[in-house]
Design brief:
By secondary structure, this protein is α+β, with helices and mostly antiparallel strands. The protein has 15 helices and 13 strands. It starts with a helix and ends in a 21-residue tail after the last strand. The chain binds protoporphyrin IX containing FE (HEM). Protoporphyrin IX containing FE (HEM) is lined by residues 71, 83, 133, 137, 237-238, 241-242, 245-246, 249, 292-293, 296, 355-358, 361-365, 368-369.
Length: 436
């Protein structure tokens, strides 16, 4: 029954099960397998705060696809060691230096937007977020930038499909899916090797702000540097985790705003006046009503784990349902309606609003994603008027990693006459010679 329901519509099935059984229930459906799903904030807090010896990373193939040094393949001390090194580059305070890159990429992409004709924005958002990560995180420019821009979408698309399949024991040849994947991966490693080599020879490495340069300069507690293999795996992880998630959220923002003309008007006025409070609240609300990742999963490692009213055995998979947590009427009155004012002037609670997961595995790119979405939306509002619509809401479409609006976040835009390009930009990212 559950399998059939889930195939007919995963999110609707989850809602139905929650309405029938309450905030915690067990599912056994394709893709998820057998898992306990929770959505009560107190129980979510307990799960996120449990140490890795109690509940930790779910073993998924993502680690095998992204490499043994990827965040998604690590647990316990090895995971903690990597976070200690890679959380600081993504700290909110330092992100101002990347705003220039985002704004340049948004302006370049939006220059080709058609006027007065409906089009899907998702592909544009994917290009903006890909180019932003390649420049701000990989520090890529010139030949490497265009090689990675060409290679990475293919590698990530194939990798996320293979992540749910078993690795075959026999070599099926270089034209088989795994053969093609390993071919792409070899190409990727060669490009990253060249990028690292160039960065190490760069006399201005110490002044550079891209995350690759920060990785090369960083040291573990024992004074040792990150190995090239660690850098390659983590760069690929940052791209896979950060590119599609941010782009799909932006496409949802377009989809929601077009259906809420009063909010859209206020956002436009606010952008003209140089403000940002409502825009930031709107981004938080888009992530609440349209979370692009469905749940954050953990697996019980201790012999038993006490969670709220239950005792769970070792091996039990537990999913904190982001979708159901945000659809909780007791926490968010009129939960299905889009109302950015609920977050105006207040920060959301860490266990009620969980689009970035939580605890020691919380998304390290959350502040980066917020900065990026804020700059892209600000650029859009300053350059265009977005036409409201009475069309039906776009349905949810699963793309493998993230949920996107099924029609790609369709927009109709008009260039604003005589609008000067408004910018709040701080100093440009060091060495942005690849700027258009
Ligand atoms: C709107 C955009 C984004 C969303 C919705 C999102 C969501 C998430 C979620 C739900 C997790 C799992 C957290 C958990 O298990 O508790 C995660 C992990 C992660 N995210 Fe994001 N993410 C976004 C953007 C980014 C960006 C821009 C980056 C980096 C450039 C990034 C890098 C990562 C990494 C490295 C992890 C693994 C952390 C770990 O295992 O320690 N994400 N993200």
């Amino acid at each position: 029954m559950q399998g059939g329901l889930a195939l007919a519509g995963r999110l609707r099935a989850m809602r139905w099960l929650r309405d029938r059984y309450g905030s915690a229930f067990t599912i056994n459906v394709p893709i998820f397998g057998r898992a306990v799903v929770i959505s009560d904030p107190a129980e979510i807090k307990q799960l996120f705060m449990a140490g890795p010896e109690i509940a930790s990373n779910l073993e998924v193939n993502l680690g095998r696809v992204l490499g043994p040094n990827s965040f998604f393949a690590l647990d316990g001390d090895a995971h903690r060691r990597q976070r200690k090194l890679l959380v600081p580059p993504f700290h909110g305070r330092r992100l101002g230096v990347y705003e220039t890159v985002v704004e340049e990429e948004a302006v370049r992409e939006m220059a080709s937007w058609p006027e007065g004709r409906e089009f899907a924005t998702l592909d544009s958002m994917m290009r903006i977020t890909l180019n932003t990560i390649l420049r701000a995180v990989f520090g890529a420019d010139g030949a490497e930038l265009s090689a990675l821009r060409d290679l990475l979408p293919k590698l990530v698309r194939l990798g996320s499909r293979l992540a749910v399949l078993p690795i075959p024991h026999t070599d099926l040849g270089r034209y088989s899916p795994w053969g093609r994947f390993y071919g792409y991966r070899r190409e990727y490693d060669a490009i990253i090797g060249r990028l690292i080599g160039r960065a190490q020879r760069d006399p201005e490495l110490d002044e550079r702000d891209d995350v690759l340069a920060l990785m090369l300069r960083s040291r573990y507690d024992d004074g040792s540097p990150m190995s090239h293999g660690e850098i390659a795996d983590q760069l690929l992880t940052l791209l896979t985790a950060g590119h599609e998630t941010t782009a799909t959220t932006l496409a949802w923002a377009i989809e929601r705003l077009r259906r809420h003309p009063a909010v859209l008007r206020r956002l436009s006025d606010e952008a003209d006046a140089g403000g940002s409070d409502l825009r930031k609240a709107a981004i938080i609300e888009v992530q609440r009503v349209r979370p692009v990742i469905e749940g954050a999963a953990r697996q019980v490692r201790a012999p038993t784990m006490r969670l709220g009213r239950w005792t769970l055995p070792r091996g039990q998979v537990v999913i904190a349902s982001i979708y159901l947590a945000h659809d909780n009427e007791a926490v968010f009155p009129h939960a299905r309606s889009f109302d950015p004012d609920r977050f105006l002037g207040s920060r959301p609670d860490s266990y009620q609003w969980i689009p970035f997961g939580g605890g020691v595995r919380r998304c390290i790119g959350a502040a980066f994603a917020h900065m990026e979405m804020d700059v892209v939306l600000r650029t859009l509002l300053c350059h265009f008027t977005l036409e409201p619509t009475n069309d039906r809401d776009e349905r949810w479409h699963s793309r493998g990693i993230a949920f996107s609006p099924a029609r790609g976040g369709r927009a109709v835009v008009h260039r604003r006459p005589g609008t000067r390009f408004r910018t709040n930009i701080r100093p440009a990212l060091a060495r942005s010679s690849d700027a258009p």
